[in-house]
Amino acid sequence: MISCISLARMIDADADKKIDFESDRTVRIGRAAALQFALYYHRLKILSPYPLPPEQPAIIACNHLNGIDPFFVQAACPRLITWMMAQEYYALPGVKWFCGKIHAIPVERTGKDLAATRAALRALKDGRVLGVFPEGKVETGLDIMPFQVGIALLAIKSGRPVVPAYLEGTQRGLEMLPAFLYPNEARLRFGEPMHFGEEERSMEAVTRKIQQAVKDLRELG
Asked: Dihedral of CA 208/157/20/82: which sign?
């Protein structure tokens, strides 16, 4: 397990100037187009709005149904989201260029990707909104899979609030391209922000609390 002191030192040693990539013209046009596509083609309904002011950095923790999920959550968020995403998706032709534009963070599925953890904590330190699917993979069944404890590490070490989110109404298990092309009736609900600090003694307990908050949103219907 990575010690908190060692991780903090690595982040500070890796610090550099903040990049205002949210104002990039390509990013702004892409976000506007994504919003329209989500609302009208995929009939996205935002059942409860994103609860934090635009200037507030945060971690969004959402369940994962298919490859288009980041698109819907981004459409409903006033800030550009820095997504943690599987390395194999990041490397796809065309996708890699766009992911580079939005500074997405590629993650190895081993669960021990130190570079990705450092990049995520750096993003939060720089005031960004970080998007995470704590299940670690797409859920093809009806339940929510156990969350990985990495979400707790990010919440505790960064001190940033965690915003739970629940997405439903999309076709489960589809890859990215079919998910974009197949019309959906997506529904998205954000929950109240959750705060965790250094006093938290168990990453497993924090992980369970975040997962339960996402499950509670599902129960709201």
From this structure: negative
Question: How far from 63 is each of 48, 116, 150, CA to CA, in Å?
Answer: 16, 20, 15
Q: Name the residue among 165, 32, 26 with its Cα closest to residue 99.
A: 26
Whole-number pLDDT of residue 19? 44
Of the listed ranges 34-38, 155-159, 187-191, the least confidently predicted one is: 34-38
Q: Which amino acid is at 221?
A: G
Total-model pTM: 0.82
**C-alpha–C-alpha distance, residues 132 and 155, integer Å:** 11
Arithmetic mean of pLDDT over the chain: 81
Query: How many Å apart are CA 169 and CA 199, to the nearest integer?
Result: 38
How far is residue 16 from each of residues 13, 74, 144, measured CA to CA in Å?
Answer: 9, 26, 38
Lowest mean pLDDT of 34-43, 123-132, 154-163, name the range. 34-43
